[in-house]
Amino acid sequence: MKRTAISAAATLRASTAVSGSASATLTRMAPVLSSGSSKREVHEINVPDWGHYKREAQEGGESGGRAFSYMVLGTAGVGYAAAAKHTVIKFLDSMNPAANVRAMANVEVDVSNIAEGTIMTVKWRGKPLFIRHRTAEEIADAESAPLTDMRDPCPDAARRKADKPEWLIVLGVCTHLGCVPLGGQGEYGGWFCPCHGSHYDTAGRIRKGPAPLNLEVPPYVFKDDSKVLVGVDSV
């Protein structure tokens, strides 16, 4: 009986010792676990924030995209402008007369049959053209006329070729209202427009009447002594 009581007491002490050892072990582990948990929390707080760099990269990408878009639009604009210029030039060029039409706009006249003191009338570009073979007296009158008395002053030398003063070529259209004046008439022996009374001298200059300007001198060139080409200044 006494031996049984001693065994029971020993067993109880052993159980208590084991229980205490386990409690001590758990107590010692608790700080370790707690410490590990603290380290994880600190590590998570100290993770760098990369958002700033991400935002800069995104903004840089947007700026680069805008620059590329502007370059594309600028290149397209230059291309469209060049195409428009080419189209306008082609359109304007198409409105110019063709080479054969320009050739028909010039007229070649044989002046060898025009006697001195007479006037030949030909058609040029749908208008009458006066070709006058002037006499020495008519040339002298034209050269000596005072420019101060003229409405549209112009020397005779500026209205004919220097080496052929005997030939005067003018459009047969009155500068007042477009009538056709009569040759060899009027107060100055040149032309007279009966519609409103304009008088021109032997150089085709307005001397009296309502016409504001002299008879127009067209471009022309003598190919030789007997042929004149009207419509161009040179050949």
From TrEMBL:
EC number: 7.1.1.8
Cofactor remark from the record: Binds 1 [2Fe-2S] cluster per subunit.
InterPro entries assigned: bc1_Rieske_TM_sf (IPR037008), Rieske_2Fe-2S (IPR017941), Rieske_2Fe-2S_sf (IPR036922), Rieske_Fe-S_prot (IPR014349), Rieske_Fe-S_prot_C (IPR005805), Rieske_TM (IPR004192), Ubiquinol_cyt_c_Rdtase_Fe-S-su (IPR006317)
Keywords attached to this entry: 2Fe-2S, Disulfide bond, Electron transport, Iron, Iron-sulfur, Membrane, Metal-binding, Mitochondrion, Respiratory chain, Transmembrane, Transmembrane helix, Transport
Record membrane topology: Single-pass membrane protein
Residue ranges constituting the Rieske domain according to the UniProt record: 136-229
Matches recorded under Gene3D superfamilies: Rieske [2Fe-2S] iron-sulphur domain (2.102.10.10), Ubiquinol cytochrome reductase, transmembrane domain (1.20.5.270)
Catalytic activity field: a quinol + 2 Fe(III)-[cytochrome c](out) = a quinone + 2 Fe(II)-[cytochrome c](out) + 2 H(+)(out)
NCBIfam families in the record: Rieske_proteo (TIGR01416)
Name of protein: Cytochrome b-c1 complex subunit Rieske, mitochondrial
